[in-house]
Design goal:
Chains: A alpha+beta (360), B mainly alpha (277), C mainly alpha (315)
Largest sheet of chain C: 2 strands, antiparallel
Largest interface: B-C, 85 and 90 residues
Number of helices of chain B: 14
CATH superfamily of the largest domain in chain B: MetI-like
Strand order of the largest sheet of chain C: 1-2
Shape of chain B: globular
Structural class of chain B: mainly alpha
CATH architecture of the largest domain in chain B: Orthogonal Bundle
Structural class of chain C: mainly alpha
CATH topology of the largest domain in chain C: MetI-like fold
CATH class of the largest domain in chain B: Mainly Alpha
Oligomer: heterotrimer
Radius of gyration of chain C: 26 Å
Number of strands of chain B: 0
CATH superfamily of the largest domain in chain C: MetI-like
Chain lengths: 360, 277, 315
């Protein structure tokens, strides 16, 4: 239905730059998630697209037409808010039909569209209630229904699940994905929760301090993060990082010495490294094995174990590293106080240069 | 044991004090109402007795031979129109101040709040000259303008607090739905602060209804007098007929007391709104 | 569309927003300027001129102020009135607000009839001062008034006095009437302030074995300071603008013998004329208004500053 293009978008509040030179293309029917820590500008970026904030510089195009000068309602978008923003003095039906009433559609057609949307969301029996009389999940569905009724080119979601409890959140995640498929619509979704991003997105945009850190499919971000920030942000529990120095550079490879003295050889990766550079070595908790590894091992003392039956989380510390998290499948009989050797492979580990970028 | 008896005594003293105070309030009002049903002879002869009969003779005298009904009507007109204009203009100002970021918005809100500090009765002389020039002396419209202006700062103050507390996403949502700024204000935001408007309305309506000072200076002809002011001329005319005077006071007090008893919670909240943060 | 067109479209949206804000702000600002700010500013200007009735004559500088303050024929009246206002303020602080504080502390213990008392205490507050003034004037009538009748029935005929006619009793009688009129207001403001104190504080003190008196003095009183500030300042402003009760009960001249004369009455007499003050004098009246405004304003600011400095921030 619609593609969106952001060109050199900047936003400044007073002297504070909150969005810096963002360029982004959202394809038709794509489910794009903006993710990042709080204050990274993801909500501002969404509000710029919606027209609730004005761009400082740059352009926004939908289907090839520039729209950043238009009022929010003329852009063909609909938005679902974090607090749902249901009008408390309107019934569910009046809430869902408000945009159409403003647009002076005739009553019969409004009623029809509202009823259809309510059917999709199983809200038909609540149409005459006020929002106050609904549960959190129902309110959430009304907010989505209000967006559907307008038949927009693009749906915008601003942290829509953050007010729901954990169980409902998982259910709504799946429901939203289904809805995306059913409506065949372009959706942009803002969240600070990387699990929501990984589970729902076709494409993730990772933001930090108003800058796009990386754009890509969820597993691409997981497997080949561009930099240390993305590597640390995507994945749960977060990746373990170990400080080290480049101790040798050779044809098509590099040799790293970690601060505990462990020597690691990276064949085929040296980027622009030179001897003496400070680097970081990264391994995801799920990529450690609780045995000496083929490409190398690290040692530590167990200070906490969480045994869940199907999986085990082991927390280690060593003189040079305060915390190493290991996530192993199955049950492992590890006890607090044990000294353990954990192995890694070069194929499933990462190297970040002094600038924080991945060494490739 | 002893401690318990002490507590009992304390409680008794508390109740006696409270009942005593309540009686000190109610008994004079009760006497005023009762005396309104009495003849002069009864008032002088048996001042504390109940009236011999609850006849409305004194009220009939008031209704037929005095301007008190006219005063009642004037006070009603002045209060209703003032509060109506006040709530509309006050809401407009408070909405602009509280819902928009714009250059000078702090100056604008200070401008409205500064009015809280200015006792308008001290500017009565220039006000008189000015109203005279505008042809608004001895004119209910003049009072309406003064009361509206005088009450605007407190109204803006009360409403700004409530409007600020409304979530911004509601406004954003309505904007996404295509509503104009006017429509967002009238259809979405203002309906949500009607309780605050009631409070601000009562806060100002009671002093306006009761005001005596401005009519004393600006209104001369009997047909334009308001109730509080009109009572003074009524007292001059009937100074020897106590029964009629008491009936007049009762009649003058009646409208507000009735509304108060029905809406006491809102009245108390409204009247104390300026003093409770 | 050209780039310039987009910029123009954006500017048009910004301009519409400005027009909308102007539409919202202009009517209330206009009313406030014309009927409050302009007269207040004019009062200062008027005080610097000589006046003949409604006609402004020559500029006289601060002569009007000097005349009010230093002319020995006039300033004794001013100082008498001012002193009476001081008496009003201090007496009301003790009688009216003291009673209110006691009642608020009692009501805060949530006695039986709590709602009833709240409503009853507030009834006089909503009544017009005119009604209350006349009502009590009738009650205090030396021959036919209920007060003296009651004293006769109680066998205390000697105590029956022409209350409003004696210089010693006229002002105290009016102050009692004023307290009867207003005590419900500070009571409920204090009560609201007490209710805002977290229950935990009071319960913790009670568990520590503190007496009710100690709790009131050491916990409730310091924490209700903001309400006290407001009531003190409002009582001050009310006392120095006191007009209706003395005017209605004993007339414009502050009789008997100036014992109930107030700045408000003097201002009215000076501005609009009276038997004693002669014709109206807008210049002197405005000067008096300016002096009163400056005095009330300065005291309010100082009192607010001083009183807020002893307020404790909750949480």
């Amino acid at each position: 239905m619609a593609n969106i293009e952001l060109r050199d978008v900047n936003k400044q509040f007073g002297d504070v730059k909150v969005i810096k030179d963002v360029n982004l293309a959202v394809e038709d029917n794509e489910f794009v998630v903006f993710v990042g820590p709080s204050g990274c500008g993801k909500s501002t970026l969404l509000r710029l697209i919606a027209g609730l904030e004005d761009l400082t510089t740059g352009e926004i195009h939908i289907d090839g037409e520039r729209i950043d000068h238009l009022a929010p309602a003329s852009r063909g978008l609909a938005m679902v808010f974090q607090s749902y923003a249901l009008y408390p003095h309107f019934t569910v039906a009046q809430n869902m039909g408000y945009a159409l009433r403003v647009a002076r559609e005739d009553k019969a057609s409004i009623d029809k569209k509202v009823y259809e949307a309510a059917e999709i969301l199983q809200l038909t029996e609540y149409l005459d209630r006020k929002p106050k009389a609904l549960s959190g999940g129902q309110r959430q569905r009304v907010a989505i229904g209000r967006a559907i009724v307008r038949n927009p080119k693009v749906f915008l979601f601003d942290e829509p699940l953050s007010n729901l409890d954990a169980k409902l959140r998982v259910a709504m995640r799946i429901e939203l994905t289904k809805l995306h498929r059913a409506l065949n619509a372009t959706m942009i979704y803002v969240t600070h929760d990387q699990i929501e991003a990984m589970t729902m997105a076709d494409k993730i945009v990772v933001l930090r301090d108003g800058i796009v850190e990386q754009i890509g499919a969820p597993l691409d971000l997981y497997n080949t993060p561009d930099n240390r920030f993305v590597a640390g942000f995507i994945g749960s529990p977060a990746m373990n990082f170990f400080k080290g120095k480049v101790s040798g550079v050779h044809e098509g490879g590099a040799e790293i010495t970690l601060s505990d003295g462990t020597l690691i050889n990276f064949p085929g990766k040296n980027g622009t490294l030179s001897v003496g550079d400070n680097v970081e070595f990264g391994v995801r908790p799920e990529h450690f094995s609780i045995e000496p590894g083929a490409d190398g091992s690290l040692r530590g003392e167990v200070y906490a174990v969480e045994r869940l039956g199907g999986e085990t989380y082991i927390y280690l510390s060593s003189d040079s590293q305060k915390e190493i998290v290991v996530h192993a499948t199955g049950d492992h009989r590890v006890a607090v106080g044990d000294r353990v050797e954990i192995g890694f492979t070069i194929a499933q580990s990462y190297l970040f240069g002094p600038d924080g970028q991945s060494v490739r | 044991m002893e401690k318990k008896r002490n507590a009992g005594l304390e409680t008794w003293l508390m109740h006696i004090f409270l009942v005593g105070t309540a009686l000190a309030v109610l008994y004079p009002i009760f006497m005023m109402v009762m005396s309104g049903f009495k003849t002069n002879a009864e008032i002088f002869g048996a001042p504390f007795a109940l009236p011999k009969s609850f006849n409305f003779d004194n009220y009939i005298v008031i209704w037929n031979t005095t301007d008190v009904p006219r005063y009642l009507l004037n006070s009603t007109i002045v209060t209703l129109i003032s509060v109506f204009v006040l709530l509309i203009t006050g809401t407009m100002a408070a909405y602009a101040i509280s819902r928009y970021r714009f250059r000078g918005s702090i100056m604008v809100s200070l401008f409205f709040l500064a009015g809280l500090m200015l006792p308008l009765r001290l500017a009565i002389i220039p006000l008189f000259v000015q109203l005279k020039a505008m042809g608004l002396v001895d004119n209910l419209l003049g009072l309406i303008f003064i009361y509206t202006a005088m009450s605007l700062p407190s109204t803006v103050f009360i409403l700004t607090g409530f409007l600020r507390a409304l979530p911004g996403e509601l406004e954003d949502s309505a904007r996404m739905d295509g509503a104009s700024e006017l429509r967002i204000m009238v259809q979405i935001m203002v309906p949500l602060i009607t309780p605050a408007m009631v409070i601000a309305g009562i806060y100002n309506a009671v002093p306006i209804w009761n005001d005596f000072f401005f009519p004393l200076i600006f209104i001369q002809t009997p047909e334009n007098k308001t109730l509080a002011q009109g009572l003074t001329s009524f007292f001059g005319e009937y100074s020897v007929n106590f029964g009629v005077l008491y009936a007049g006071l009762t009649l003058a007090a009646l409208p507000l007391v009735v509304v108060f008893i029905v809406q006491s919670k809102r009245f108390i909240a409204g009247m104390t709104a300026g003093a409770i943060k | 569309m050209q780039t310039a067109d987009y910029a123009r479209a954006k500017r048009a949206r910004a301009r519409n927003l400005k027009l909308w804000l102007a539409f919202l702000l202009a009517p209330p600002a206009f009313i406030l300027i014309v009927f409050v700010f302009l007269p207040m500013a004019s009062a200062v200007l008027y005080s610097l001129y000589d006046w003949d009735g409604l006609v402004r004559k020559e500029f006289v500088g601060l002569d009007n102020f000097a005349d009010i303050l230093f002319n020995p024929n006039k300033n004794s009246i001013l100082f008498n009135a001012f002193w009476n206002n001081v008496k009003v303020f201090t007496s009301l602080m003790v009688i009216q607000n003291g009673l209110a504080l006691v009642l608020a502390l009692l009501l805060a213990r949530n006695p039986r009839g709590y709602r009833f008392y709240q409503v009853v205490f507030f009834v006089p507050v909503i009544l017009s001062t005119v009604i209350i003034g006349f009502q009590w004037k009738l009650f205090l009538n030396p021959v036919f008034g209920l007060v003296n009748k009651a004293l006769h029935y109680a066998g205390l005929s000697d105590w029956a006095l022409p209350w409003l006619g004696l210089p010693e009793t006229a002002l105290p009688a009016m102050l009692l009437v004023n307290s009867w009129h207003w005590f419900g207001f500070p009571t409920l403001v204090f009560l609201a302030a007490i209710h805002r104190i977290p229950k935990d504080f009071i319960e913790a003190a009670r568990l520590d074995g503190a007496s009710e008196w100690r709790i009131a003095r050491e916990i409730i009183w310091p924490l209700m300071a903001p309400a006290v500030t407001i009531i003190v300042v409002l009582t001050f402003i009310g006392s120095f603008n006191w007009f209706e009760i003395p005017y209605i009960m004993n007339g414009l001249e502050g009789s008997p013998q100036g014992s109930t004369d107030m700045l408000g009455l003097l201002f009215y007499r000076t501005a609009f004329g009276s038997v004693s003050a002669g014709g109206s004098d807008f210049g002197a009246g405005s000067a008096l208004a300016v002096l009163m405004f400056i005095f009330i304003f300065i005291f309010s600011v100082i009192a607010t500053k001083y009183l807020t400095s002893r307020e404790v921030e909750l949480s």
